[in-house]
Specification:
Helix 1 runs parallel beside helix 10 (about 265-275). The protein has 2 domains: about 1-95 and about 205-275, HAD superfamily/HAD-like (Rossmann fold); about 100-200, Hypothetical Protein, Haloacid Dehalogenase-like Hydrolase, Chain: A, domain 2, CATH 3.30.1240. It has a 9-stranded mixed β-sheet, with helices on both faces. A 6-stranded mixed β-sheet has the order 9-8-7-10-12-11. It is built from 10 helices and 15 strands. The protein is α/β, with parallel strands linked by helices and about 280 residues long. The chain has helices at about 35-45, 55-65, 100-115, 135-140, 170-175, 180-185, 205-215, 235-240, 250-255, 265-275; strands at about 1-5, 15-20, 50, 75-80, 85, 90-95, 115-120, 125, 145, 160-165, 185-190, 195-200, 225, 240-245, 260. Pfam families: Hydrolase_3. This is Cof-type HAD-IIB family hydrolase. Keywords: Hydrolase, Metal-binding. One of its GO terms (molecular function) is magnesium ion binding.
Amino acid sequence: MSSSHGIAAAVDYRLVIFDLDGTILTPEKKLTPRFKRAVKHAVRLGVVIALASGRSLDSVLDVLRQLPLGDTPGYAIACNGALVWSRRPGRYVAKECLEICDALALSELGRRLGYACYMLENNHLLTDFPIAPDAGGYLFSRLAVARLPDDWWVTPRRPPKMMFIEQKEKIDALPALIPPDIAGRYHFVRSEPNYYEVMKKGVHKGSACRTLAAYLGIPMAQVIAVGDEQNDKEMLLFAGVGVAMGNAAREIKSLADWVTDSNENEGAAKVLEHFIIKKR
């Protein structure tokens, strides 16, 4: 583990926000006992724990429920920042969703480019693109995939995000194919090798962390954010201390204030132990 930028030694950190995949979850998608112990200790010290992911809200909550948070609320940031949820009392802190006109525009873009564009709705991936047996939604997602009806645009819909899900090589090529006017209208991010996701402009994990910190009355300087992928960039830049995992992308390590160990070697637990537990 190493520090890459100056970090204030005397700060009492009050909010720690963790990414899921590649961060608190092992390659086998498990939480380790050491991480759970560190969370329990941090919560007893009054630290607020939040999880932030590109996953659906239900998927983030499934992981949040496994943490020993006691009577504290615990917070979930889902869909790359579009949704912010408080576990207790069980309600949204914020929702920043796309409109039906956005869903139409992005679906049309996908058709022109030959890419299926999926709408996330109720834990389903919905598309008006023909669904082949080897469609990316089937190959690279655990969510159910379904074809939208021909008149799908008649029903009011406000998806938190849209997704292009394809073979890595096709996702590699996609950013250069998106017209500048469309690229400037939304927030695009590559969250995984096979995912290129689209949110409302200005919506990302960083904006959601800012919203949550303001809601809790916690200054930016007392926030730690931990992640490993491109969709964690804004979150790490927002936080008083941005921590990159040892397995993080090179760009994420370069902008982080601190680099911890990998998700195979208790990197997330070590963040709590170093910044919270050993200092109190």
